[in-house]
User: Fold Glyoxalase/bleomycin resistance/dioxygenase family protein from Cohnella endophytica.
Amino acid sequence: MITRFSRLVLNTVSLQGTKQFYEELLGFEVAFESDDEIRFRPTPDFELVFLEKEEPLTPAHIAFEVPYSAFDEVVALMRERGIPLSKWPDGRTMDRYETGQNVYFRDDNGNLLEMISHLYVNEDGWQSSGPLQIMYVREIGFPVENVAAFRESLVDLFGMRLTMVSDAFTFAIGGTAHAVIASVRRRWIPISMVALPPKMEVEFQASDSAFVGRVREKLSARGIPFSFEEGGALAFTLEGYPMRLLIGGRYE
Ligand SMILES: [Fe+2]
Assistant:
């Protein structure tokens, strides 16, 4: 099975601006930096990588899970640090609902980020990292032309389970990883942001090699090209999104 997201690679047009945002404002640890790349480690087992490219940017959507009991404290710290929270049309910034609460904000590249917490997540089972107390990366958004086709691929290839299924939206879930499958014609809440497909590479952690072997067979059966990379990661592209399946922790 898929157990979690382990890496996300995005583009930036300014490594310096991105470092100022993620390191200084969000307190993310910098694991590596070079002339054209910076890698942040918001948790010990996830890397958020930015590559500096001379290309237009298309914003991605990422949600970080924080402890429910610490949510107000996390939001207060964000306000104190001057991070502008995105507003709903009625002017509120925080959304509280039956199972959780969240706030949205944007980084220096226009990516739509989210801090989210859920009553049903057992906080004791997780280590929180950094000043924003992040437990794990919960969501990565995948705007697609055909929501139904993409979710069926994720179910068939990865055995992901689905919730909130509609023509325009679906969560595909594997472990803590929630792939937010959104129609390119549905705008991102809360700021009605056009859902352009971002240029990104997503790496999932797989539970074991037998699972990765089954994914490989299904890719073959569907005629989807794949390769094995250094460290045993299975690499392929789905709906224009480069993906990797990794066995064993990259950072352990
Ligand atoms: Fe979200």
User: Anything to note?
Assistant: DSSP finds four helices and 16 strands in the chain. Residues 61, 63, 114, 139, 180 surround fe (ii) ion (CB under 6 Å). The helical segments are 15-25, 71-80, 147-158, 209-222.
